[in-house]
Design goal:
Structural class of chain B: alpha/beta
Oligomer: heterodimer
CATH class of chain B: Alpha Beta
Shape of chain B: globular
Number of domains of chain B: 1
Largest sheet of chain A: 6 strands, antiparallel, barrel
Distance between the termini of chain A: 97 Å
Strand order of the largest sheet of chain A: 1-2-3-6-5-4
Shape of chain A: elongated
Order of helices and strands of chain B: EEEEHEEEHEHEHEH
Radius of gyration of chain A: 32 Å
Number of strands of chain A: 6
Radius of gyration of chain B: 17 Å
Structural class of chain A: alpha+beta
CATH topology of the largest domain in chain A: Serine Threonine Protein Phosphatase 5, Tetratricopeptide repeat
Strand content of chain B: 25-35%
CATH superfamily of chain B: P-loop containing nucleotide triphosphate hydrolases
CATH topology of chain B: Rossmann fold
Number of domains of chain A: 3
CATH architecture of chain B: 3-Layer(aba) Sandwich
CATH class of the largest domain in chain A: Mainly Alpha
Number of strands of chain B: 10
Largest interface: A-B, 32 and 39 residues
Strand content of chain A: 15-25%
CATH architecture of the largest domain in chain A: Alpha Horseshoe
Distance between the termini of chain B: 22 Å
Number of helices of chain A: 12
Number of helices of chain B: 5
């Protein structure tokens, strides 16, 4: 009988030494039941006390393990290793676009490994990259929420909005992503918005949606670069995409002069907006200019023009 | 099966990244004739994946080209992964570099396992021989199959070997499953090469890795004919 108990105890100790805590506990409980139900065992009470003590210590270890298994922030050195190991070899080309893509991959890896503070720093760096700004913004919001810094997420979103950091279309995209995250995490967005001193996210978004719905479709535009009828240079461009009062046009990489003239922030006072039903004369502002990085239009420029009046 | 080849030009070298469904992701450096592939040790928690890597780190010093990286919790459990870079030297005129990874075995780290598995070229499935871990082995194999499937990879097609670890405990009188029983449980359909081992003493560790590397390199050669390039 003693041999049997000793055998099971040996197993329990070995499982415990291997970190198999639940298995060790099962073995100890087997011994406990065996002692309780067997009248012939000498020193029964003493043995039971010893086994109960062992089980209690084991449970403490299990609790400690469960506690430390939750969120763990690693050192900057480990974060660097994660970024290096989980970034594809595209980074080797040395091209600036690839470097940014690799940075984004590294930041995403940190996020996936639950290193939210580290990921936040990396995504912040990528905000200035035109190609990755929206995805970085979304992940910044995600990191704040994962870190239980909900107010920081809300404040940051409205900072971007007030600074016109993103276009209306991009803000709608980020806002809808944020709302979904709020829902996923069962957060009361209205309460949080009021805490952050913001009336209502829906009201704020409504104004974009209104712009969206009420604006007339524009199929192409004509731009005159001078008001002087004799010296004016006119160009006509097709609209590739429209969201509310923002239209996107593509300019060929060969049109150097046009590309140079249409810098972000330039006001265009003499624009013809061609809709399927009529031509409107009005004005606009260049709100974004992006070089297309891939696909058949690689090297061309995508320009956003915000319609000011028509 | 979709095969994509990316050529990335660089001032100093030219790299070809061969990818099948973007997931077998060995990196070929044409100029230096160098291949880098990824082998992942998979298995249930506490089965001895890290111990395997620690033994490789100690015993194959000549082939190790850097430090072993382990990110553990206080309780010595792998939190994210272990990483060990190896250099096998030249095979058919190609310098072969291998990245060995382990995954965290605990059930709650499924998403981390999936992340580490991305781009895998070969797998060592470490099974725990302890009788009490029978179900955990089967669940871990199922988890591997699901994670591979999420990357459109087939467990029956990817290079994989199975290791029956902790065989040394038999001498201690601890109840172990027989290798035959484990074959039935885990390898009846897979029919992968399998090895009895004790990562603690090192027995069978080298054979397991060698077999996995053989399969992986043969598989990559079959896919991309790298040795003839």
């Amino acid at each position: 009988m003693n041999k049997n108990i000793k055998g099971i105890l040996k197993q329990a100790e070995l499982y415990q030494s291997q970190g198999l805590l639940k298995e060790a506990e099962q073995q100890l409980k087997k011994i406990e039941t065996f002692i309780q139900t067997n009248e012939r065992i000498k020193n029964k009470e003493k043995l039971l006390k010893a086994i109960t003590h062992k089980i209690r210590l084991l449970n403490e270890e299990v609790k400690k393990f469960e506690k430390e298994s939750k969120k763990t922030e690693t050192s900057p050195g480990v974060n660097k290793i994660i970024k290096n190991l989980f970034t594809t070899a595209f980074a080797v080309s040395g091209d600036e676009t690839d470097k940014k893509a690799a940075q984004l991959e590294g930041a995403t890896a940190l996020l996936k490994f639950g290193q939210f503070e580290g990921a936040l720093v990396e995504f912040d760096k990528l905000l200035s990259s035109e190609e990755h700004s929206v995805v970085s913004a979304k992940n910044i919001i995600r990191c704040f929420l994962e870190l239980d810094k909900v107010n920081s997420a809300v404040t940051r979103f409205f900072k971007w909005k007030s600074e016109s950091f993103f276009t209306s279309e991009q803000l709608i995209d980020i806002s809808s992503f944020t709302e979904n995250l709020f829902e996923e995490k069962k957060l009361d967005k209205d309460l949080l918005l009021s805490q952050a001193g913001i009336d209502n996210i829906n009201d704020n978004m409504d104004c974009f949606e209104k712009e969206y719905e009420e604006f007339i479709d524009i199929s192409s535009i004509g731009i005159s670069f001078s008001e002087d009828a004799i010296t004016s240079e006119d160009i006509e461009l097709d609209v590739s995409f429209q969201t509310g009062n923002v239209i996107s046009i593509i300019i060929s990489s060969k049109d150097h002069q046009v590309i140079d003239k249409l810098k972000v922030g330039v006001k265009l006072d003499n624009v013809q907006y061609y809709s399927p039903v009529a031509i409107f004369k009005g004005s606009g502002t260049v709100s974004a200019k992006t070089k297309i990085q891939s696909g058949p239009k690689k090297g061309d420029y995508s320009l956003d023009i915000k319609v000011e009046s028509m | 099966m979709r095969v994509s080849i990316f050529v990335v030009a660089d001032k100093s070298a030219m790299y070809v990244i061969l990818s099948v469904e973007f997931l077998y992701m060995a990196v070929f450096n044409l100029k230096d004739r160098e291949i880098q592939c990824k082998v992942v040790y998979y298995g249930p928690g506490r089965c001895g994946k890290t111990t395997n890597l620690e033994y490789v780190f100690k015993a194959y010093k000549k082939q190790i080209k850097g430090d072993m990286v382990s990110i553990n919790t206080e309780g010595d459990r792998t939190l994210f992964f272990d990483f060990l870079p190896m250099n096998l030297g030249k095979i058919n005129g190609c310098e072969i570099k291998v990245q060995l990874f382990t995954v965290p075995g605990q059930v709650q780290y499924k998403s981390t396992r999936k992340l580490v598995l991305k781009g895998v070229d070969g797998i060592v499935f470490v099974a725990d021989s302890l009788d009490v871990r029978r179900e955990k082995n089967m669940l871990a194999l199922k988890d591997l199959q699901q994670n591979l499937k999420s990357y459109d990879l087939n467990i029956f097609k990817i290079p994989i070997v199975i290791q029956y670890n902790k065989r040394d405990l038999e001498k201690e009188g601890i109840p172990l499953m027989s290798c035959e029983k484990m074959e039935k449980d885990l390898n009846r359909q897979l029919k992968a090469p399998s090895f009895a081992a004790s990562a603690f003493s090192g027995q069978g560790v080298g054979k397991t890795l060698q077999s996995c590397l053989n399969l992986t390199l043969k598989h990559l050669h079959k896919q991309f004919n790298w040795a003839d390039k």
